[in-house]
Design a protein that fits this description.
Layout: E1 2-20, E2 26-45, E3 50-53, H1 65-77, E4 83-88, H2 99-114, H3 121-131, H4 135-138, E5 143-147, E6 152-155, E7 163-168, H5 175-180, H6 192-200, E8 207-208, H7 211-217, H8 219-229, E9 235-238, E10 245-248, E11 261-266
Parallel strand pairs: 1-8, 3-4
Antiparallel strand pairs: 1-2, 2-4, 2-5, 5-6, 7-10, 7-11, 9-10
Bound molecules: cytidine-5'-monophosphate (C5P).
Length: 283
C-alpha cells in the first residue's frame, strides 16, 4: 500500500507579531497561503521503517519533522506498522516557506489515509501543533488566518489565484534568531478585518513584521528586496522568518536572472477530503 503526495510550501501574505509570550513564543496574526512549489513524498507500508531524501543536507534522524510526525502518529493511534518514506526536496530550507512543517503535515495526512483514517482532521491538527507551530495550517485547505503561535487556524475561502516568483539567496536564517531580534514596539498594529478584506477586495495590504529583524541580521536581504522591487512587481515581501521573498505579478519575467534560488509558483488550495494536487497547467 503506497501513496505519492505533494507537500506544498507556504507564504505569509501578511504577518503581524502581537506580543512576546511567557513561554518564549510570539503571538501573531498571519494570512497563510499554500503555493505550488512543492516537495514530493512517497509513503509505503512496508516490512521496516526507512527514510530517504534526495537532498543530502537534510537530517534523516529524529530531528527531522517527518520522523517526529511518524512517531507521534504511531504513539497516538497505538497502531503497529512500518513505513518507507522517500522525499524529493525542492523547497529550500531556512527560507520561511514552511517546508519541514509541510512535510510533517503530509506524513500525518498520508499515514492516516493509508491506515483507513483512524484520526479526524482536528486530531491530526492537534498532533501537528505539538510538532511545529505551522504544521496545523498545512492540514487546512490552503488559505487561513493563523493566530496564537500560528497553530490556531481560521479557514478562509480561496483567494483569487496569483502567480508569483520565489527568490532566495544562498544563506538562510533560523526562525528563533529572527524572533529574538524583533523589537515588539516597532510591530504593526493593523485592523485585521480591514487587512483581510483588502485581499478579497483586490487592493491587498502586504506586510511582514519579521522583515525588520531579518534585515538587521542580514542587511543584504534589504538590498535584495530593493533590487527585486526595481523590476516593477506589484509586491515583493519576505515570507515568514526568511530568507525567501515572494514577488507577485504575472507579467514580469525574471526567469533569466541569476538568483541562487528562483522558482515560479502560484497559489494552491486543496479540496475538502482530498490532498493538494498540481494540475498540469500550474507551475
Ligand atoms: O513552533 P516552531 O518549532 O516552528 O518554532 C520554532 C521557534 O521559532 C520557536 O522555538 C520560537 O523561538 C520561534 N517562534 C516564536 N513565535 C512563533 C513561532 C515560532 O517565537 N509564533
Amino acid at each position: 500500500m503506497s501513496l505519492s503526495l505533494i507537500s506544498p510550501a507556504k507564504i505569509n501574505l501578511f504577518l503581524q507579531v502581537e506580543k512576546k509570550r511567557p513561554d518564549g513564543y510570539h503571538d501573531l496574526a498571519s494570512l497563510f497561503q499554500t503555493i505550488s512549489l512543492h516537495d514530493k513524498i512517497s509513503i509505503t507500508l512496508s516490512e521496516k521503517d526507512t527514510f530517504t531524501s534526495s537532498d543530502p543536507n537534510i537530517p534523516l534522524d529524529g530531528s527531522n519533522l517527518i520522523i517526529k510526525a511518524r512517531e507521534a502518529f504511531r504513539n497516538i493511534t497505538g497502531l503497529k506498522f512500518n513505513v518507507s518514506i522517500a522525499i524529493q526536496k525542492n523547497i529550500p530550507i531556512e527560507a520561511g516557506l514552511g517546508g519541514g512543517s509541510s512535510n510533517a503535515a503530509t506524513i500525518l495526512f498520508g499515514l492516516n489515509n493509508l491506515l483507513l483514517n483512524p484520526l479526524t482532521l482536528n486530531e491530526l491538527q492537534e498532533i501537528g501543533s505539538k510538532i511545529g507551530s505551522d504544521v496545523p495550517f498545512f492540514l487546512s485547505e490552503g488559505t487561513a488566518l493563523c493566530r496564537g503561535r500560528g497553530e490556531l487556524i481560521e479557514e478562509l475561502k480561496p483567494l483569487k489565484p496569483e502567480s508569483l516568483y520565489i527568490v532566495k539567496p544562498a544563506y538562510g536564517l533560523k526562525t528563533p534568531l529572527v524572533f529574538q531580534n524583533l523589537d515588539i514596539e516597532t510591530c504593526t498594529k493593523c485592523d485585521l478585518n480591514e487587512v483581510i478584506r483588502s485581499f478579497y477586495e483586490g487592493h491587498p495590504i502586504y506586510f511582514n513584521d519579521l522583515e525588520k529583524p531579518a534585515f538587521k541580521l542580514r542587511p543584504e536581504l534589504e538590498t535584495l528586496k530593493n533590487s527585486l522591487k526595481s523590476y516593477g512587481f506589484e509586491a515583493v515581501l519576505m515570507s515568514g522568518s526568511g530568507t525567501s521573498f515572494f514577488c507577485i505579478n504575472d507579467t514580469i519575467n525574471i526567469d533569466n536572472h541569476d538568483f541562487t534560488f528562483i522558482s515560479r509558483a502560484s497559489f494552491l488550495n486543496r479540496k475538502k477530503k482530498k490532498w493538494y494536487e498540481i494540475e498540469k497547467m500550474l507551475h
